[in-house]
C-alpha cells in the first residue's frame, strides 16, 4: 500500500513538473545551470546561484580571448565599486550596469546589461563571491569550454598582458589604439567628447585643422552632397605650409578616415 502511494506521488510530482516547466527541466541541474535562462525557466535560479555557480570549478579562470579578459577585469573593478553598498540591491544593480557600459563592443555591453537587469540578485551574489569567470561564461561573453591549467612547458596566461585589457586609458589615448581595441565608438562618445583640450596660442595648424573639420561636418550633415571623405581630407592637407606636415597629414587622413568620420558625427572638433 505504501509503495503504491509512493508511486502515485512520483507520478503526480513529475506530471506537475512537466506542465509547470519545460520538458528539458527533468534532466536536472546539468540542464538548469547551463544558463541564467535555463535556471529561471526551471525555477532553479536560486539553487544554481547558491550551489553550482557559487562553487563552480569548471570556470575558475577566463580563456585568453581579449573580450573574455576584458570581462573579468571589468567585473573585478565593478566589484570594488559595490563593496561598500552592502545589501542595497538597486544601487548594486545600477553600479553593475554602469560597469557593463565600459565594454567597447556594443554587443558585449548589451549582453552584460541584459543579464544584470534580468538576473540582478544572482549576479550580485556571484560578484560578492568573486565568481567573475563564471559570470563571464554565463553572460556568453566567454567560451563555454572550461579553461585548463597550463602545462609546465607552457607560459601561463597573465591577465593584462594584452594591451586592450588595460581599459579606456589605453584604448582612448590615440586613434591607432582605439582601432586596435575596436573602441572608437566608446572613446568618441564617452571619453573624447567630454575632454577639454588646452590650445596653444597662435597655433595656426591647429586652427586650420579645426576649420577643416567644421567645414567637413557641414558637408557631412548636408545629405545632398556626396564626397569621398578620404580624398577631401587629403586635399585639405595639401594646404599645410610644409611638405613634412602635408605628408604626415595625408598619411593620417588616409589611415583613419573612418575613425575621423565617427568623431565628426560625435561633434568632436579639437
Order of helices and strands: HHHHHHHHHHHHHHHH
- Percentage of residues in helical conformation: 55-70%
Oligomer: single chain
What radius of gyration results from the CA coordinates? 26 Å
Poorly predicted ranges: 1-19, 146-154
The termini sit apart by 86 Å
Strand tally: 0
Proportion of beta-strand residues? under 5%
Shape call: elongated
Short description:
With 270 residues, the protein is mostly helical.
Please describe what this structure looks like:
- With 270 residues, the chain is mostly helical.
- Among the domains are: 2-53, no CATH class; 163-194, no CATH class; 204-265.
- 60% of the residues lie in helices and 0% in strands.
- It contains 16 helices and no strands.
- It has helices at 2-20, 29-32, 36-41, 45-53, 66-82, 89-100, 106-118, 120-128, 132-138, 168-171, 175-180, 184-191, 204-221, 229-237, 243-255, 257-265.
- Helix 5 (66-82) packs antiparallel against helix 6, helix 7 (106-118) packs across helix 8 (120-128) and helix 14 (229-237) runs antiparallel to helix 15 (243-255).
- It starts with a helix and ends in a 5-residue tail after the last helix.
- The model is unreliable at 1-19 and 146-154 (pLDDT under 50).
List the main descriptive attributes of the protein structure presented here.
270 residues, mainly alpha, disordered N terminus
Write the layout of secondary structure elements.
Blueprint: H1 2-20, H2 29-32, H3 36-41, H4 45-53, H5 66-82, H6 89-100, H7 106-118, H8 120-128, H9 132-138, H10 168-171, H11 175-180, H12 184-191, H13 204-221, H14 229-237, H15 243-255, H16 257-265
Helix pairs in contact: 4-8, 5-6, 6-7, 7-8, 14-15
